[in-house]
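Bumping my old thread because nobody answered last time. Still need a sequence for this structure:
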């Protein structure tokens, strides 16, 4: 069985080798044409010599429009001076590759002048006695938009929680409080910061109260409504509360 597996593996290597050896230019061209990431090569003078289909989609230029032009046409004006310095510095380094946004965020510039966030890596190689730099770039517009939408959602959510008259709790799977609304201070005398990280069971007057509650929750498909519990306050007193709970 092992011999058969090795034969298949050797055969796959031979097949790959025969494909690339037969027509390496066609093989490379197929990669450049099918990848969705931008692949751009520039010479030592920072003129564009390779601009794949992915780059055309991202930057909205055709290959013919940018070949031979300075890479600066793809960089927002505010980033151009720093970019040129980074390329010159990389040319003198021993490393042959690195991520371009290790030190700071980078951006690209579409044909219409729109700047967009990106992440990229760069490599260098000696080709015919000249240094060629190749950048592989990914457009992060969708990710940034999603992050911004999430931040806005969290802000709205936090605003609702902070302004609720009722007390809101959220626990993790171990029963520890991970969120509490400001109203908890009026209810139990604790600030939100004081209760975060503590176990909700510690506030039950009945030592078995939390276990009973969880049993009730486990038997319900739609959470619990109007569940009565006696909780212990910071000053030692207790208060009866009616709670609605979603188990998700």
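Sorry it took so long. Here it is:
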């Amino acid at each position: 069985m092992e011999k058969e597996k090795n034969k298949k593996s050797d055969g796959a290597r031979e097949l790959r080798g025969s494909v690339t050896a037969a027509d390496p230019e066609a093989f490379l061209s197929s990669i450049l044409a099918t990848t969705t990431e931008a692949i751009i090569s520039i010479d030592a003078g920072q003129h564009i010599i390779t601009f794949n289909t992915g780059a055309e989609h991202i930057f909205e230029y055709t290959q013919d429009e940018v070949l031979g032009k300075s890479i600066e046409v793809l960089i927002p004006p505010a980033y151009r001076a720093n970019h040129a310095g980074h390329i010159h510095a990389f040319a003198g380094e021993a490393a042959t590759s690195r991520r371009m946004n290790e030190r700071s965020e980078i951006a690209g510039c579409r044909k219409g002048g729109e700047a967009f966030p990106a992440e990229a890596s760069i490599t260098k190689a000696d080709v015919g006695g000249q240094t060629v730099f190749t950048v592989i770039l990914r457009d992060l517009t969708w990710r940034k938009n999603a992050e911004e939408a999430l931040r806005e959602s969290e802000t709205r959510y936090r605003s609702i929680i902070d302004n609720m008259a009722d007390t809101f709790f959220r626990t993790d799977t171990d029963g520890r409080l991970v969120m509490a609304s400001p109203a908890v201070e009026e209810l139990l005398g604790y600030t939100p910061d004081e209760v975060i990280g503590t176990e909700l069971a510690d506030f039950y007057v009945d030592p078995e109260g939390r276990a009973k509650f969880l049993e009730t929750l486990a038997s319900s498909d739609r959470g619990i409504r109007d569940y009565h519990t006696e909780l212990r306050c910071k000053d030692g007193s207790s208060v009866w509360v009616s709670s609605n709970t979603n188990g998700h």
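Residues 2-9, 15-21 have pLDDT under 50 and may be disordered. Let me know if any region looks off to you.
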